[in-house]
Write a structure and sequence with these properties.
By secondary structure, this protein is mostly helical. About 75% of the residues lie in helices and about 0% in strands. The protein has helices spanning about 1-25, 30-35, 40-70, 70-100, 110-115, 120-155, 160-210, 210-220, 245-250, 260-270, 275-305, 320-330, 335-375, 380-400, 410-430, 440-455, 470-490, 495-505; strands at about 230-235, 240. It has a two-stranded antiparallel ribbon with strand order 1-2. A hairpin with a 4-residue loop joins strand 1 (about 230-235) and strand 2 (about 240).
Length: about 500
């Protein structure tokens, strides 16, 4: 039965590489490689955006948090992300698609450069560096999840490092070959696999827990487990309050969407801006359903673990779906096939994010840094060669960072805060306030990004009111600084404000 699982996972990985090869001929210039020549349909746009967003956090991080501590943290995080997803599609998607097409920008740093008329290249350089600094560890967390999956599945027979390297090579291979179109198409497939995996785990998880009533009884027996204003403390078997400030901090996860380059690129790449309404509906519905099911799996998994049917320490709660899939292989051929699909779903959630991160980081170096910052004249063919080589180098760095196991949730939360605070306020003001200038954008980006580090490693150590998620204070800082500096410095040139007004009329 375990061989069946390996065959299914192997076939899945091979299919991803084949897709990359098939799309390699359609990515022969920078626009095609980085943005798919703006030819994505509404379904691919929606599902690739959300698949690249959710990452292994959906199938490992979120269920793990729900299993260990109950509904509060996982629930408020999901609510914040759901609202953030909807608002991002509603407020940013159409405006960014129209604006980026008007000024011919194919990456987020290039959009900022052209939107604010920054000929010095400073804004583009800062944007590119932010992407590189935060995306490499983010991609490393994806490689980490793949290695954890394979190592756990084999019962330790396949070492973590070997498993991680195999997964990383496959991801780098199809991304290098096919670029944005390959990444987006595989993301659509991966979102389908993730959905099937979630549903299958719910069914078998309830069975292993002893039935739905056992799940309910277990959750009710744990103090604070089902509350939204408290969490369950497994060590003390007691209740920990989850107050208003903590709730606001958790909801702040939704602010990160406004600054996520791999999601913003999907908005820029859709074939027709009028199709974004359809994409918004598809994306929002899928996200709310997927996160609800993921939290439910955590609750179900908690009952299965405490019943003794699933061997798992509470400290390893993020592996609950892996353990349920392993248990399924003991129940015949069909459950083993479904187990293979479930484990492929975890791979899918990881790969769909890692490929987009590798591509965005690569474009920041080959297109933004070399072309717009250092002003190196490159042919389309040379840009493509450098882009593919850059993906491989970045993948190697991420592999090195992922050489030991670590917490997926912790790495993702920090990178998410970095992008949300550095890019989010500037992106919103770039699209909605024509008085924003390059000086404000530079100051906002630097202050927002810096505050993520300062708050997490200095201020939060004070505890109490300061022990909140770093994205919230960093986002507010970036927003205020961008507005204040823009007002205190020279107004944008008339050509820039004219373009803003022209684009605004198309909204």
């Amino acid at each position: 039965m375990q061989t069946v699982v390996y065959v299914i996972i192997g076939a899945y990985l091979l299919m991803m590489v084949v897709i990359g090869f098939l799309f390699s001929k359609k990515s022969e210039n920078a626009s095609g490689y980085f943005l798919g020549n703006r030819k994505l349909g509404p379904w691919v746009t929606a599902m690739s955006a959300e698949a690249s967003d959710m990452s292994s956090w959906l199938l490992m991080g979120l269920p793990g948090v729900a299993l260990a501590a109950g509904l509060a943290e996982a629930g408020w995080t999901a609510i914040g992300l759901g609202i953030g997803t909807y608002l991002n599609w509603l407020l940013v998607a159409k405006r960014l698609r129209i604006y980026s097409h008007r000024i011919d920008a194919v990456t987020v740093p290039e959009f900022f450069k052209k939107r604010f008329g920054d000929e010095s290249g400073i804004l583009c350089a800062i944007s590119a560096l932010v992407i590189i600094v935060f995306f490499i560890p983010y991609a490393a967390s994806g490689f980490n999840a793949c290695g954890t999956l394979f190592s756990a599945l084999s019962g330790g027979k396949i070492p973590y490092l070997t498993a991680m390297l195999i997964s990383a090579v496959v991801i780098a291979a199809y991304t290098t070959l096919g670029g944005f179109l390959a990444a987006s198409t595989t993301d659509l497939i991966q979102s389908i696999v993730m959905t099937v995996a979630l549903m299958a785990v719910v069914f078998f998880g309830i069975r292993f827990a002893g039935g739905w009533q056992s799940v309910v009884d277990n959750a009710r027996a744990l103090p604070g487990y089902l509350a939204m204003t408290s969490t369950y403390d497994a060590a003390a078997n007691g209740v920990v309050p989850y107050g208003g400030l903590t709730i606001a901090s958790t909801l702040a996860w939704g602010l990160g969407y406004f600054g996520m380059p791999h999601i913003l690129l999907r908005f820029m790449a859709i074939r027709d801006a009028s199709q974004l309404r359809t994409s918004r509906r598809i994306a929002t519905v899928w996200v709310f359903i997927a996160m609800t099911v993921a939290i439910l799996i955590g609750v179900i998994g908690g009952a299965a673990v405490r019943s003794g049917n699933i061997p798992l320490a509470i400290g390893d709660s993020q592996r609950i779906i892996i353990e349920i899939a392993k248990k399924m292989t003991e129940n015949g051929l069909l459950p083993a096939i479904l187990a293979g699909i479930i484990l492929s779903g975890i791979l899918a959630s990881t790969m769909s994010t890692a490929d987009s991160q590798l591509l965005a980081a690569s474009s920041s170096i080959s297109n933004d840094m070399l072309t717009h910052v250092f002003r190196v004249k490159l042919s389309q063919k040379t840009v493509m060669i450098i882009s593919r080589a850059t993906i491989l180098v970045i993948a190697l760095i991420a592999m090195y960072m992922a050489r030991t196991e670590s917490s997926v949730f912790r790495i993702v939360s920090f990178a998410w805060a970095g992008f949300g605070a550095a890019f989010g306020p500037v992106m919103l003001l770039a699209l909605f306030w024509k008085r924003t200038n390059k000086y404000g954008a530079i100051a906002g980006m630097l202050s927002g990004g810096a505050m993520v580090f300062i708050w997490k490693y200095v201020i939060s150590k004070l505890g109490g009111l300061f022990a909140i998620y770093e994205l919230l204070p960093a986002f507010i800082t970036g927003l205020i600084v961008t507005v204040v500096v823009s007002l205190l410095t020279k107004a944008p040139d008339k050509s820039l404000t004219d373009t803003f007004e022209t684009v605004s009329r198309e909204f």
